[in-house]
Design a protein that fits this description.
This protein has about 100 residues and is mainly beta. The protein contains no helices and 6 strands. The protein has one domain.
């Protein structure tokens, strides 16, 4: 199968003296996909600073799948992917990528 398209968005999120999380979603018509996030930049605010990225949910013709899919997912008949980013005492920027196969 060849890559026939790409959907890519960015996410900027961070925390100072605390931990928190955020999410972003890619929605599209039913497709065979490969989705994964990448850290683009990372700024540490303290010695315990960290960032965690992954896919937390995807939907396909079998329903909604929740979990901690690291580093990403391959799925057929998929219609959406939700990315999750958690930070502790850090600020980061991520690239969220979904590639489409045909």
């Amino acid at each position: 199968m060849a890559i026939v398209g790409v959907l890519e968005t960015g996410m900027f999120f961070g925390t100072i003296n605390t931990s928190a999380s955020a999410s972003a979603q890619h929605n599209f018509g039913s497709s065979s996909i490969w989705s994964r996030p990448y850290v683009q930049s990372f700024f540490n605010n303290d010695d315990d600073g960290s960032i965690a990225l992954g896919v937390s949910q995807f939907k396909d013709n079998k329903g909604t799948h929740n979990g901690d899919f690291h580093p990403g997912i391959f799925a057929s008949n998929c219609t959406s992917v939700t990315f999750h980013m958690s930070t502790t005492d850090s600020i980061g920027e991520a690239v969220l990528t979904t590639e489409f196969f045909g």
